[in-house]
Amino acid sequence: MNPKNLWTRFTKGLSHNSDDDTANRYRILRRNIFILMILITIIPLIIMAGIYQHEYQSSIKKEIVNPLKTLANKTKHSLELFLEERLSVIRFIAASYSFEELSDQKTLNRIFKTFMDEYCCLVDLGLINKKGIQLSYVGPYEFLGKNYSKQSWFHEVVVKGNYISDVFMGYRQFPHVAIAVLRRTEEGRYLILRATIDTSKFDNIIASMQLDQESDAFLINREGFLQTPSRFYGKILDKYPVSFPRGNYGPIVVEEVDPQNREMLVAYVPFTKADYIMVLTKQRSALLKPWYTLRSKMLFIFSISVVTIVLVVFKLVDTVVKRVKDADEKRESAYREIQHTHKLASIGRLAAGVAHEINNPMAIINEKAGLMKDLVAYDDQFQKKEKFLGLTDSILQSVERCKGITHRLLGFARRMEVQLVELDVNGLIQETLGFLDKEALHRNIELKLKLTDNLPYIFSDRGQMQQVFLNILSNAFAAVEDEGKIVITSWEEDSDTVGVSIQDNGSGMSKETLRNIFDPFFTTKQKGGTGLGLAITYGIVKKMGGEIKVTSKQGEGSIFTVYLPKKAKIGPGE
Questions:
Q1: How far, in Å, CA of 493 to CA of 62, rounded?
Q2: Rounded to an integer, what distance in angstroms lies between the CA atom of residue 352 and that of residue 535?
Q3: DSSP string covering 394-462, please?
Q4: What confidence tens digit (pLDDT) does each residue in 369-415 have?
Q5: CB under 8 Å to 481, separation ≥6 — which residues?
Q6: Which helix (H) or strand (E) holds 135?
Q7: CATH class in words for 417-565
Q8: Which fold has domain 317-410?
């Protein structure tokens, strides 16, 4: 099998994924680590924030609902106490006076006056017999002799013994409440004492709650009609526009949306001995204002925390992935270095064998040609002496040339003696260009030198350094078209190193070619390329303790940069 094909197959077998695949792999790694770290850090934060929000909202609702419920219940108790007090007074009057005394208009007037002196809000007072006829009456209306037997409240008093009406406007269109009490006499007769109470006391009790502008308190009856005026929902006897719980229940607080689309917290407290419901409403936004303020602060802190976490995680992940990438690149570089060293060692052994095999016949040819030259030189009678001497000189020159070739092969095999001498790198470059002047002139290639003046001398092997520059320049000439351009630059890299770069504007190389450029037998030349020039160059530079780097882009050209120590670092046995 052809050695070139063997090395190509071996190199392809050991090569890694393409650069696109590698970049994609690191992108996926960066993305996965980023997502994982974000989930690990932010999800617990979100859960904690959610739990805290729920607990705090529940707590603040309790702190709001309980006082709201308590205030409504206390107000309801005050109103019930007011009604119960009036009911007790009416019941006391009915029990303390006989039917005849209450039937007497003068007695009833005296009772009414006493009631007004001790208690407020009494509008009128009247006695009704079992037939529903009002027998006596004190008040602003002409109700004496009026028949109430067909009214529902009359029958309710007969059955239950007492009665408290809903608020009604009456003849004079101001709100009042009727209270009636039934008393059965020892003779089997019964009387009904009925009084009308002004509801202004209701308004005073509700006003004593000292509600803010976002709150409202009022009474409704079981059918949902307002018994006192409401700040939000209308006047007395208007229909309460919000659905409310019906039946018998204790104080409750519900969340509702009223017809004006306001979110309200509403406390409902039904009366025990009257068909009234105490209603206390408060706008939810006003009640939960502390919560909204805290929630805004929490949301701001949470947002800042999330942004900080994302930035920190992004930076951390980027740093970690870069370190992983650097470690992979170093590992791959070390792997390629070892691989390349093994290749060079194998080629070196092969080159040493070839050089040894060639040197033996060349030595014989050299001796025989020298003997022929001596014989011809001492024979004055030889007719074609000059011609034979010229031919033997040509043979000796060819032998010397072969000797140089084998010498370089042995040098590649690291069996050649290295001679360190003081070298002027600028002069060495110009000397090497002397071999290529004619080709540059013929092809009209522009050679531009940017050589640093007073460049420090280096200690290295002249022949091998000349071979390094010659190989790189030969590749540059092969890469550029006619009328191309090659720029050679030299500089002092640091106190221990000198740098030389050779830049061309040729065809450039692909990334795949760059990975294999220093491999033995690897060549991109269609004809005449052996694939050994840059491999030998790499070996020489490394042997001298230097470094060689290549950057290239297809269609734009290549830059070979050689870093040479000011004193070659030759290892033992080299």
A1: 77
A2: 15
A3: HHHHHHHHHHHHHHHHHHHTT-SPP--EEE-HHHHHHHHHTTTHHHHHHHT-EEEEEEPTTPPPEEE-H
A4: 778 877 777 777 777 777 777 888 888 888 887 776 676 566 555 54
A5: 506
A6: strand 134-138
A7: alpha beta
A8: Helix Hairpins (1.10.287)
